[in-house]
Structure formats: C-alpha cells, structure tokens
Fold this sequence. Notes:
The chain has 292 residues and is of the alpha+beta class. The protein contains twelve helices and 13 strands.
Amino acid sequence: MEFLRPTTWADALAAKAEHPDAVPLQGGTDVMVELNFDRRRPPALLDLTRVAELADWAREDGRVRVGAGVTYTRLIDELAGPLPGLAMAARTVGSPQIRNRGTVGGNLGAASPAGDCHPALLAAGAEVELASVRGTRTVPAREFYTGVKRNALAPDELIAAVLVPAATGPQQFSKVGTRNAMVIAVTAFGLALHPERRAVGTGIGSAAPTPRRATAAEDFIAAELTAAGLWDTGGELPEAAVRRFGELVAEAAAPIDDVRGTARYRLHALAVLARRTLAWAWADYRATRREG
Length: 292
Ligand SMILES: Cc1cc2nc3c(=O)[nH]c(=O)nc-3n(C[C@H](O)[C@H](O)[C@H](O)COP(=O)(O)OP(=O)(O)OC[C@H]3O[C@@H](n4cnc5c(N)ncnc54)[C@H](O)[C@@H]3O)c2cc1C
C-alpha cells in the first residue's frame, strides 16, 4: 500500500488528482478501524495530517470556516460560542481520545447516517467546501449526503472545510444511545432557531439512509411562531404546536430495524427529542429576550 504524505494543500490536491483511489486519512478513527478489520484495502492512503491549512478555523462574513482537520476537542474548546449546536454534538462523540483525533472533515468523509456532526450542520444551514486541482465548490450540507455512507465528493476531490453560519439564536443537539458515552446514536436530532429570518432548522441523524432535514416540521413551527407573534413577544410555545412538531419530525424519518434499535423505537425517540430540543431552545430564546 502506498502512503502519500503531502505537506501543503496544493500537494494534497495534486496527489488526489494523480491517485483518485487513494483514501484520505485525517484522524484515522474511521479509516484505521476499517483497515484493521480488513473491510478496506485501498491501493494508497493520503495522509492529510501534515497539511496545516486544514487544521484551522476562521470567522468570515457571519460564518465560521472550520477546516476539515479541526478536531472535536477544538470545536468544543474554541467554537462553542458561535457554533453551539456543533459543539454540543462534538461533546457526545466517542471518548476524549477519539475527540482529540476525530475531525469534522472525517465525519463528513465517512458520511455515516449516524455521524453526530450532521444533524447540527443541517440545522445550522452549513455548506461543505470541496476542492480539487480543477477548483473549489461549495455544496449545501443538505445536498452533500447522497446515500448510506456516500457523499457528493468526486474521486479527485477533498473536503477543505465546512462553512457554518454563526448562531443567531439558541441551538440544541440531542442523541439517544444504548448507554451514556462511547456510543453510536440510535437516533439523534439537531435544532437551530434563526430569529433573524424567523426560521427553524432541523437535522435528523441515524433514522434514514442519510442525515436529513425535517422540512415540513421546520415550515410548520416557523409559521406557528410567526402567526402567534411569538418571535416578538417571546411568549410560551403552545403545547399542541410542540406535539405536532414532534410528529412531523418523526414523519420525515425513514428508519430501519438494526442491532441498535427498531424503526418503531427510533420514530418514537425522534419525536421526543424534537419536542425536547424545541422546548429547550425556546426557553433559551425567551430568557435572552427577557435579559435584552
Ligand atoms: C471508539 C470510536 C468511537 C466513535 N464514536 C463516534 C461518535 O460517538 N459519533 C460519531 O459521529 N462518530 C464516532 N466515531 C467515528 C469517527 O470517530 C468519526 O466519524 C470521526 O469524525 C472521523 O474523523 P477522522 O478525522 O478520524 O476521520 P478518518 O478516519 O481519517 O476519515 C474518515 C473518512 O473521511 C474521509 N476523509 C477524511 N478527511 C477527508 C478530507 N479532508 N477530504 C475527503 N475525505 C476525507 C476518509 O477517507 C474516510 O473515508 C467513533 C469511532 C471510534 C473508533
């Protein structure tokens, strides 16, 4: 097996163009498991850990550009302010060792329906920046996941960064697992309030072939909040609207039975997570309005 070790982004893109079969390696917390279990035997590995350009984040135009090599630990320590939903999701990933190595780029590269970044990225309205020697393009997260563990990357492309709008309202992430830590989600849900455009973002994890939004639920709750003037008054959420929101989120899912849980349980849990995260986020929103 060839081991390619570029030290610059330009060299990494050139190497990927020359070796489209090479498997990129960032933290290795997915790739090394696959190699160890002999699930994958690629002709080449493309080690990206020396490419400094991937390891940084920066604020630009109301967004945070998070390099593909930024680890969960750094998301938690450095970006919980502007990206609270993503930081919450990061806190639930693996163990400290996995959070020190694992990256948002690797989570996107793996594109597992159970990956914890995805619900938060969908809810926030993130875009994924892809690059190759041919140039750079951005793909909205909602279009990035194309199938089970499949994504929109062309064979010669690499993930450069994820562009996440800085939060303008409260965000939440919640995950159900078979235990409290070191667990792959049975199902997960991300939610973001966007008061400036009177919208609510959602992301469903581990309950469909790909991570996906619950768009009917988003439209429903945004319309309810607007019709009742609640964005302005910060008044209490009507119980019936919260319940309906949970139902619509579950309706957007298409789960399967597997070793971690049944489809029926996942639908039930998802509705509960949707109701809870909405109630928590709304309580935060009301508190900020009282303070303001
Ligand atoms: C014990 C354990 C616990 C875990 N717990 C969780 C958990 O709770 N939640 C969760 O979501 N995940 C979990 N994972 C999975 C894994 O840690 C995450 O998916 C992590 O984000 C992968 O990041 P990485 O940098 O290690 O990726 P890598 O293993 O290096 O790569 C993962 C995939 O992305 C591709 N890739 C990496 N970087 C790029 C790039 N720049 N461009 C294109 N493709 C790229 C790789 O080729 C590979 O296909 C766990 C893994 C282990 C071993």
